[in-house]
Amino acid sequence: MKVVCTQCRAKFDIQEKNLPDKPFQVNCPKCRFEMTVKPPPKATPTLRGAPKRMQANQDAIMQLVALLTGQTARNADGSTGPLASWQRRQTLLCLADPAQAQHVLEKLDHQAYAPTVCTEVSKAIELMRDSRVDMVLLDPQFDSANQGGITILRHINSLPPKYRRRTYLVLVSPQVKTLDTYMAFLNGVNLTINTSDIDTINQILERSIRDFNELYRGYNAAAGLSPF
């Protein structure tokens, strides 16, 4: 099913098998505008096909929940599998050391995150302006020749509050303590991770995002927004 954003006119596709039977809310992957999408009418199943269609509807609802919560999809057999790339958290890796970027790539849960490695600050800013970016892992020394670290930090913190709140900024450095909320506040980021803790990055992100969603649970409910 093709969808056109009513805010920015961006076009994107939603797989027919992932659609529920009733109108549902979805965020534009480009500008994040929340809109109501009405699925096309579905053919009435025959009696023979009814059980399969009921299972398909149940799977579609599970996929929709996964889409709105950013979680891993659960298959019909109960196993879990990766979501489509646009359903996962779009993540930029803006790290100064290529070896460290590769280490993060190997450790990061690709079922929950869709990572893109950036080597230049201009490319990172372009991606943030032209596409949906949910999370940025930033080394302060990134593209130091062009002051990449401070440039990205300033760009993200200059976003309007509703967009800044949906962009999770993680400072990755050997100079910070992991999960140091005071240091995160001083640097204008959501989370700090010491480079020595990269092996447990998924558990760190899970804990931090859980706390973040709990902090903004009331706001999200009032605004009709899904958790990060």
From TrEMBL:
InterPro entries: CheY-like_superfamily, Znf/thioredoxin_put. Residues 1-32 form the Zinc finger/thioredoxin putative domain. This is Zinc finger/thioredoxin putative domain-containing protein.
